[in-house]
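dumping this here so i dont lose it again. seq + smiles for fe (ii) ion
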Amino acid sequence: MKATDILKSDHQTILDLLNRLKALKQRNAILLQRIYDNLKVHKECETRIFYPALDGIEHDEVQTSIEEHQEIDDVLEELMAIRIQKGMAVFMEVLDTLDQKVRAHFQEEEERLLPAAEEGIAEKLDDLGAQIEQLKIDLRTSQYGMAA
Ligand SMILES: [Fe+2]
Ligand SMILES: [Fe+2]
């Protein structure tokens, strides 16, 4: 599969999980862990394979994307650390921040970086896709446990 199609499908999976957790209006450890795992794996695929392949043609956008992933990671860690005693309002507030940052980031990628890749490195997308699929297997059998 082309790298751009894999990344787009990752975005949809993550947005679906975020929507499900928001709709529940309560802390759900299983959904939260799936969001965490999927976001971490997606970030590794992009920062190790996809962004470096695009750095030559979209340098500034790639740098911005890397910074945004750092921000997303920070909010994600904050969300994971919130215990139920703190109250649902705090949890929902941080979840909302995460949701907004993730949504904005994915939208920028789909409007700018993915089309730039389709145009500028079209002949490499199948190979990059194979590398991404292999990395996912490696990550999911190592530190990130099960993510689906
Ligand atoms: Fe990204
Ligand atoms: Fe992405």
